[in-house]
């Protein structure tokens, strides 16, 4: 009885060592076994042969496509043990099968492929049981199928290509698929045993047991899991290949397959993004189509499985499991899972010993992030992309590619300030690349208005000299724009003129370096126009149009220059021609309203305002929060609508009249936005949803309509239009200014004065408000204060002829005739070159 117990305990220990791959312990256990009855001698031979074969493979790993190892002395020993175990015939049937499987495996290693195949046909591989067998035998059967597939491939490759049959190819794939399925089942069973053992040890002792060794797949199991889909894709059968990927990914995960799953998830995501369209997509829970446009039409086969197994690996199932419904959605899900795994497995250590591991983990993560960029970029989900890339920053020290991707994603997400900081790091990593500082300049002279920073970045490009090659001209263009904006910001005329001179010099240098660049000629023309050198500006804008005939800003500038020469009808014709190419450009439409008021009368101008409202509604597909009767929800926008929104040319957010983008204007717009939000909440009006720019555009449309009504003396209609704008931005200085004009039209001077003072409290540099308030103070006899306000207005905008004229009237009323005369002459001179709208309404961006 005791001997029987000892025997069963020994067999259990042998089985455990075989399952866990502890081959170094097998010889000792085999020695103990051989002391038993004679049948055990044959089993001991089998165990010794297996142990020596596995040890050999561990020390001399096989690589796919490599030549066979050939007969080695150690392999000769393995064969002796296995042949001895088989020849005596004392083994139980299941052990006979195992010995044959090991011998076939040995034949493959030695390059005897046909001998291996004859053993597999003798063993009847498909008849081997998968139910009620030890765990290690699942591994042996999985390896056997993989080895059979490899042997069939080798034999097939030796025969002429035209003699190969489609059935042979399918048999090879079936071998690999069966091998992969059984391998997954084996790994799940091993994991289950490990969990049971660790739980039992924790229950028996408060101290945790030794950490179990990580299970290794090995060459044959890995081949079984990875080879089938490779052949499918090679043969042009994407449908079956994708199906195989999904089968592996749906299997319940084990620690051993985590790296494999990450690789497969990434590969499947790439195929879904690059090789599949929405029309050919089927979700993972559906049967694949029998015939798919994805597959090679010359090699069409059935896309259904033609084999069955008595046991299959467990798959994730349940009612609440998410199932993607289109290719980008599935790709994104796979990539987010891969990104999570790549982040978790990232090697952070910088010590030399870990250098190779760190490079491999970084390359793996980099591929995932590149694919995420494609997937999220298609959906316009730049916010999410920037968050994903931010998680990678912990392990991408000194890695330019991912830093640059992070900067670009921040730019696309509208996080300009952070993007500039990340671009600084990119410049440090790649100091000789001129495109990076140019991107930083673009952000700095845009909504950030960091002109000093922008100047530093532009100088980096210029200082590169010849190394910047064709981008050197862009560097001068960038610094010219910085100087031009600084001239607009400057309050002292001397400083303004100095920056204007620098801007002109930079634009001239840019044009000399790149005479075929229309932007250099255009910005040179714009700067000359701002400096009121109208004839010279006309020459350069025509040159810009010769280089790029459909450039919207060049056409707009030409129209404004013609209006400065009082050729209003010609200017209107140019605007209408430009609108033929860009019908949804609001800046052009605002200019058209001004020109139509002069050329065709207010009725035409009001029709254009109505047309703008229709364009706004169709482009943005938003619901006006002031239209409480029509609802205030944000309507769903399609991808096309979002793309249209992104490419739409929007007017400056500061002042529709002056177009100035002073630092003070930016501050004022933020103040009025905050005040407007507070006022809206107090009035319980529905909040504005979506981007802010569309609502600002809508408010400007209403204000332009109100201005037309004021021009024809209709205060009631002007009030209604102004109220529409007020519903959107109650504390906007433009709205308050318009209310002041309506009060003036009605003869309420005190009320007008109050509105103007409120507007200036929000935007102290709004020139139009300063001019109107100065006039009212002049009417009230408060000449000193009127003079002070008008002189401040001249400091802000020295080209505003209306302000000079008002200042002359105030000075004349005070008896200062000489100064008044000088002001009137200045006003006349400026009015002669004054455009219908300031030249600065044209955006100055890189």
From TrEMBL:
One of its GO terms (cellular component) is plasma membrane. Component of a complex required to localize phosphatidylinositol 4-kinase (PI4K) to the plasma membrane. The complex acts as a regulator of phosphatidylinositol 4-phosphate (PtdIns(4)P) synthesis. In the complex, plays a central role in bridging PI4KA to EFR3B and HYCC1, via direct interactions. It comes from the Eukaryota. Keywords: Cell membrane, Cytoplasm, Membrane, Phosphoprotein, Repeat, TPR repeat. The keyword Cell membrane applies. Its main location: membrane. It is found in: Cell membrane; Cytoplasm, Cytosol. Residues 1-389 form the Tetratricopeptide repeat protein 7 N-terminal domain. This is Tetratricopeptide repeat protein 7B. Signal peptide: none annotated. TPR repeats lie at residues 733-766, 801-834. The lineage of its organism: Eukaryota, Metazoa, Chordata, Craniata, Vertebrata. The keyword Repeat applies. Gene3D superfamilies: Tetratricopeptide repeat domain. GO terms for biological process: phosphatidylinositol phosphate biosynthetic process; protein localization to plasma membrane. It comes from Erpetoichthys calabaricus (Rope fish). InterPro entries: Endocytosis_PI4K-reg_protein, TPR-like_helical_dom_sf, TPR_2, TPR_rpt, TTC7_N. Component of a phosphatidylinositol 4-kinase (PI4K) complex, composed of PI4KA, EFR3 (EFR3A or EFR3B), TTC7 (TTC7A or TTC7B) and HYCC (HYCC1 or HYCC2). Interacts with PI4KA, interaction is direct. Interacts with EFR3 (EFR3A or EFR3B), interaction is direct. Interacts with HYCC (HYCC1 or HYCC2), interaction is direct. Association with the PI4K complex is strongly reduced by TMEM150A.
């Amino acid at each position: 009885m005791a001997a029987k117990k000892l025997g069963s305990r020994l067999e259990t220990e042998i089985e455990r060592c075989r399952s866990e791959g502890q081959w170094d312990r097998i010889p000792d256990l085999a020695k103990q076994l051989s002391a038993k009855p004679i049948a055990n001698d044959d089993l001991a031979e089998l165990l010794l042969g297996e142990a020596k074969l596995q040890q050999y493979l561990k020390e001399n790993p096989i690589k796919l496509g490599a030549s066979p190892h050939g007969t080695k002395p150690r392999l000769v020993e393995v064969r002796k043990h296995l042949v001895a175990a088989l020849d005596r015939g004392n083994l139980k049937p299941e052990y006979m099968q195992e010995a044959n499987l090991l011998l076939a495996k040995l034949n493959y290693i030695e390059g005897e492929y046909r001998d291996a195949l004859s053993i597999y046909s003798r063993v009847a591989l498909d008849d081997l049981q998968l139910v009620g067998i030890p765990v290690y035998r699942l591994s042996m059967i999985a390896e056997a199928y993989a080895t059979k597939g490899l042997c069939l491939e080798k034999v097939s490759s030796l025969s002429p290509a035209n003699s190969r049959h489609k059935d042979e190819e399918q048999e090879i794939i079936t071998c690999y698929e069966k091998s992969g399925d059984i391998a997954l089942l084996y790994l799940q069973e091993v994991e289950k045993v490990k969990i049971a053992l660790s739980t039992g040890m924790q229950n028996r002792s408060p101290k945790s047991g030794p950490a179990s060794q990580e299970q290794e797949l090995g060459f044959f199991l890995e081949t079984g899991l990875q080879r089938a889909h490779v052949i499918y894709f090679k043969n042009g059968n994407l449908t079956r290949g994708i199906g195989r990927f999904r089968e592996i990914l749906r299997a319940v995960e084990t620690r051993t397959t985590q790296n494999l799953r990450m690789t497969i998830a990434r590969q499947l995501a790439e195929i879904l993004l690059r090789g599949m369209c929405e029309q050919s997509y089927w979700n993972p829970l559906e049967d694949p189509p029998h015939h798919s446009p994805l597959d090679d039409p010359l090699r069409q086969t059935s896309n259904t499985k033609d084999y069955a197994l008595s046991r299959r690996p467990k798959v994730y199932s349940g009612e609440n499991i998410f199932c993607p419904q289109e290719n980008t959605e599935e790709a994104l899900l796979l990539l987010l899972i891969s990104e999570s795994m790549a982040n978790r497995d990232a090697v952070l250590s910088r010590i030399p010993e870990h250098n190779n591991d760190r490079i491999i983990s970084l390359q793996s993560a980099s591929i995932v992030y590149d694919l995420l960029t494609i997937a999220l970029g298609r959906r316009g989900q730049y916010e999410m992309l920037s968050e994903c890339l931010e998680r990678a920053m912990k392990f991408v020290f000194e890695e330019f590619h991912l830093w640059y991707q992070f900067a670009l994603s921040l730019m696309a997400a509208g996080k300009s300030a952070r993007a500039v900081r990340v671009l600084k790091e990119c410049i440090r990593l790649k100091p000789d690349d001129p495109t990076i500082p140019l991107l930083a300049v673009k952000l700095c002279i845009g909504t950030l208005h960091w002109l000093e920073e922008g100047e530093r970045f532009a100088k980096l490009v210029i200082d590169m000299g010849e190394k910047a090659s064709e981008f050197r001209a862009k560097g001068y263009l960038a610094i010219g724009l910085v100087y031009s904006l600084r001239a607009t910001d400057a309050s002292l005329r001397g400083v303004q003129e100095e920056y204007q001179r620098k801007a002109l010099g930079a634009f001239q240098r840019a044009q000399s370096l790149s005479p075929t660049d229309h932007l250099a000629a255009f910005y040179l023309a714009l700067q000359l126009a701002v400096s009121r050198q109208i004839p010279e500006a006309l020459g350069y804008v025509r040159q810009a149009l010769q280089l790029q005939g459909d450039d919207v800003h060049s056409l707009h500038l030409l129209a404004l220059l013609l209006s400065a020469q009082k050729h209003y009808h010609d200017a209107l014709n140019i605007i209408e021609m430009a609108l033929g190419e860009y019908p949804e450009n609001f800046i052009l439409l605002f200019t058209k309203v001004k020109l139509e008021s002069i050329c065709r009368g207010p009725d035409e101008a009001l029709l254009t305002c109505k047309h703008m409202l229709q364009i706004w509604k169709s482009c943005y597909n938003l619901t006006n929060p002031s239209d409480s009767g029509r609802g205030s929800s944000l309507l769903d926008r399609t991808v096309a609508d979002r793309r249209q929104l992104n490419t739409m040319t929007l007017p400056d957010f500061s002042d529709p009249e002056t177009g100035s983008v002073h630092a003070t204007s930016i501050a004022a717009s933020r103040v009025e936005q905050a005040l407007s939000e507070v006022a809206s909440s107090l009035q319980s009006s529905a909040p504005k949803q979506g981007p802010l720019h569309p609502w600002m555009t809508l408010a400007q449309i209403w204000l332009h309509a109100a201005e037309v009504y004021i021009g024809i003396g209709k205060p009631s209609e002007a009030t209604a239009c102004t109220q529409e704008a007020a519903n959107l931005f109650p504390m906007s200085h433009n709205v308050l200014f318009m209310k002041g004009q309506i009060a003036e039209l009605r003869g309420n001077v005190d009320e007008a004065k109050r509105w103007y003072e409120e507007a200036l409290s929000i935007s102290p540099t709004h020139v139009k408000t300063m001019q109107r308030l100065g006039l009212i103070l002049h009417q009230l006899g408060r000449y000193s204060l009127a003079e002070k306000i008008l002189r401040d207005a001249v400091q802000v905008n020295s080209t505003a002829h209306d302000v000079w004229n008002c200042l002359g009237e105030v000075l004349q009323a005070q008896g200062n005739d000489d100064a008044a005369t000088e002001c009137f002459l200045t006003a006349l001179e400026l009015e002669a070159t004054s455009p219908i709208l300031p030249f600065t309404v044209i955006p100055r961006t890189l």
